[in-house]
Automatic annotation (TrEMBL):
GO BP terms: regulation of intracellular pH; sodium ion import across plasma membrane
UniProt membrane topology term: Multi-pass membrane protein
Chief site of localization: membrane
Pfam families given in the database record: Na_H_Exchanger (PF00999)
Protein name in the entry: Sodium:proton antiporter
Transmembrane parts of this sequence: 6-24, 31-50, 70-92, 104-127, 133-155, 176-194, 214-233, 293-313, 319-345, 357-374, 386-405
Similarity field: Belongs to the monovalent cation:proton antiporter 1 (CPA1) transporter (TC 2.A.36) family.
GO molecular function: potassium:proton antiporter activity; sodium:proton antiporter activity
Amino acid sequence: MPPFFNPLALFAIVITLATAFAIINHRYLHLPTTIGITAQALGVATVLLFLEQAVPMPRMDAARAVLDSINLPATLLDGALSFLLFAGAQSVDQRELWQNRFSILALALLGTMLAVALFAVGMWMAFPLVGLAISLPWCVVLGAMLAPTDPVSVVGMLRRLGLPPKVQAIFAGESLFNDGVGVVVFAVAVQLAAAGTIDPLGDLVWQMVQEVGGGLLLGFLCGCLAVWCIRLVTDAHLELLISICLASGVYSLAKMLEVSGPVSAVTAGLALGMPRALGALSQHGQREIRNFWMMVDEVLNACLFVLIGFYVLSVPIHGAVLLAAVLAIPLSIAVRALSVLLAMLPAYLRDAQRWRVLSIMTWGGLRGGISIALALSLEHGPMRDVLLAVCYAVVVFTILVQGLTMERVVRQVRLGAAEG
């Protein structure tokens, strides 16, 4: 790797590409920004792959080396995710979130576990059809990668669709909290897959209780401490610094205490957005914090989605894997619908109107950078190559196809409700 590829240079490359793609999208494509950036990055990378097949291109190795240097698993899971989740938590309607807390918890906990199990069994049955021998434990790993919906994609989508506040709160709340659950399940699933056996109740249940419960408690306590610190000052810039300390500190502390960093970051962000916390902030401080975290959200989103597009350069694709990906895409949609339905079955039985929302919840279950980062964190080998390729195909499909058609699905549901 050339010496000038230091962290600042890598960030400059990514943010420059993201900015260029955003300008092109704004001027000509008129797509949602994250989708437009991903589509252009994917398009450029695909053209480079075709050119590499036609004409040897030594520079392609350099491009892949840059992607490896960025190290998405470490960059996202051990850094940027804390700021993305913290920013997303502050943009949620807290009143609606609390009123729908049981639905959110059911989706984030039970729904995620169901999605992992159903997708794992489905792919375990599908892989032999294309000539791939993937054991059930590794299929569970794949299910854990793709079970969490992506808060970056979902929260951004909700801002432009104008869904009812209740549906927005359930959507955003689930996507913010199920990351922590998915990461815990993934970590345990990898350990069990390496051992070659699956223990459905042992380590998984205890580790989930420890990490998720500990993350909730740590996030709430750190959020309360931050509010207490804010009451000691009257300077808007100091209030902003406290919020930055909270977002980065709670995630790092969670890693040290071996509890869920994503859950702690979300909980801390929600704690800072409570009415009591907002009352402690000056009006100027509220504006500074809101504007700062919106900007952080936009910048990190742009960088993340340009990386998602370019990571096709590092995905090993061949005939059998491509066929497996084709089977995985409709399976992921069916599993999403079934996991949402089963997790909230009592609510659906009580309220017939919820059946109309099921299609929105299903089609809006976008996956994103977290799934790819988890796949990339696996040890190099044939198993990683297969799981990464299938995971990447599902992620790209959800972002480009489901993301672009989500507005049409919402309109059809509203039309059906009006006619009914």
